[in-house]
Amino acid sequence: MKSPRISPETLRVLESFLERPTGWHYGYELSRETKLKSGTLYPILMRLEKHKLLEARWVATQDGVPPRHTYRLTPDGLELARTQLEEARSRWMVRQPALSRG
Amino acid sequence: MQEMPLRQAATLLLEYAIRIAPPESREWGQAMRGELNFVEGHWAALMWALGGAGMMVKYALISIFIPGRGQGIPPGDELFAKNVSLGKAALVGGAGCVLAALLFFGAPPFRQAFRVALRPWYVMFQIPSGDSQHGFQALAKRADSQHDPEGLAFCAVRIDNPRESARLAEEAVRLNPNLLWVYAVVGMRHPELPQTGSWMARLEQWDAQNSLFHLIEAESMEFAHYRRGVWTPATQEQEQAWQAAMAAAFQSARFDDYLERVAELNRKVIPHYGFYDPYEVESREQLDLPVAAFENSQRFAKSLLRSGEDLEAQGDRKSARDKYWAIARFGQMVDSQGRTGFEHLTGTSLQAMAYKALQASSERGDNGAEAVLFGYLAAKFDPVSGEHPGFPRESAFGLNTARRNAAVVQISGLMILVCSALLVIAAAILVVGRLSSQGTRPAAGRAKPVATLILSSSAVGLLFSSATLYLTYRPYWYIFQSAVLNGGRSQARDLIYFLNETKLPAGVSPRSYLLVHSLVYSGSPNFLFYVWTGVTLLGLIGLALILLRHFLSRPSVNRLQNHPRVP
Question: What ranges do the domains of chain A cover?
């Protein structure tokens, strides 16, 4: 069955995770890398987490500072990210033949 | 200096939003709160908090309105489903507001209110449709072409130009002789017309015993002395003719100003031609006794009083009292059968005058009881202090309320125009952005949040202004309906006060308005045309430059984001 098209914002988040596939990422760090605002980024993270494509954990900080939430892709998430990015790149190259040749 | 409070505000905002968010989403709110301490720059922290708070509020609203959705995931919780952003929600809400505002245009009171709200601009820019006389002239042409006597009569009694008014009246009567009464109404407005004498002669045969025709005749005779701005004294014959006309008026059995027939004519003509102009009510106020009729009646009554006093001095008390009673009876007739404030004033002042004379006569005749009664009646009908004031107090709201409501209506009308213009601009930006983005997020999308904000706030403003305009004007719509279609005069004064106030832009004094108006129109009559053409051209050039800049910058837009890297 053909999978539905993923949103460009989600692609950017997955792309950012794939920079360090096994590393843990902070929300603010992802926001800076993807240029997405908090109101756009966190719903994407919530969805990924709900579908078990992302795992999250709390990291303690210094006293008096609230703990930080940190994220990394699960093996399923990594597989999906690679597939989706590959598909997206193929679609883009079909649409932009001149650029793909160059 | 202001950075710390900004960060504090950001923290407070986000913490408050977490508190109102559904329990399932709070952990994510706390996640954003945790990151807030690491956001570089206090303004950036505030923007971070705003984004997070917006998300929390959205989830809170979703959990309220769609209980099944209270899972912390917004609508479309499938992984690949497109996220319903606040921007989209704003666009949908904006579209709803615009639709609701457009529905107001379906209501006739709103359409009339909108025209009234734009009235000062019609007058300012000399748009012909703002001139009620222009409307009457156009209507007269239509009625003429349709050979519609009632339409012609409707215009005849309102058009200011005496010759045109007379022509229309004669044509209306030629087509339908039952409209002969139109001569009386036109005669009341234009007693200077040369046809007045012949018209009144016909009317006296048609409706015998109506004192109105004699009053108009007397008025017409007064105008005969006024030529090119100079009053010439009346000859003896002219004075005798005037006295005879007034005596006939005082002896007549009835007084009918035909305003009931005018109201009946309104009921037929206004719906037929769709001529729903509230300023028409104002013009109807002019369908009143001629101003000089009051003076003529007073002058003739005084001559009767003098004559009565002479008779009393000669010992003929009975004949003297007959003259006083003639004044009282005529006053009572005009007061009770008249329909306008001016007619009531004429009637009551004559009665007061007559009862005072009768009181004095009774005192001279040592009839104390009668003197007390006449004294009471004289006080009762006194136009100034009596309990029967000459001009009925028809205004229920008062001038200040009329002024305030007129300002609200004008500002609402202006806001509707401004919001509509902003809506069109914002929608154009969004459409252009969408067409040029080709489904991805280009740099052009930078304008999207601003355009969305403008669009949604303009839509809310449009709806709010429309509702305010409708609710403020609604009472005047009912007064208009009652006055024009049913001939009701209750609260007509309120409508007239209100309409007068709408002729000038809110907050502008008549003096400054006239000054600006004279300055604007002192030069070329086409001055405004050139100004507005220039403004429009500048706007178009600006728009073209924006579009040119936008399209020229397209190829370099976000190339990286459209071309995702594959590890």
Answer: 8-94
ipTM of the complex: 0.89
Q: pLDDT of B70-86, one tens digit each? A: 444 544 445 554 555 66
Q: How far apart are CA B151 and CA A79, in angstroms?
A: 83
Judged by a CB distance cut-off of 8 A, whether residue B434 touches chain A is no
Contact A43 B55 (CB under 8 A): yes
**Residue of A10, A14, A41, A46 to mutate, interface with B, max B Cβ within 10 Å:** A46
Residue B266 included in any domain:
no
State the CATH class of domain A8-94.
mainly alpha
Burial of A54 (0-12, 13-18, 19+ CB in 10 A): buried
Contact A12 B564 (CB under 8 A): yes
Q: What is the pLDDT of residues B206-260, one digit of tens each?
A: 988 899 899 888 888 877 776 666 677 777 888 888 899 999 999 999 888 888 8
3-state helix, strand, coil in chain A (%, to 5): 60, 15, 30
B360 and B413 together in one domain: no
Q: Whole-angstrom Cα distance, residue B121 to residue B471?
A: 22
Structure tokens at B212: 């109105």
Minimal-distance CA residue of chain A relative to B74: A43
How many beta carbons lie within 10 A of that of residue A20, not counting itself?
Answer: 12
Interface of B with A in 20-59 (CB under 8 A): 25, 27-28, 30-35, 37-39, 47-52, 54-55
State whether A7 and B82 contact (CB < 8 Å).
yes
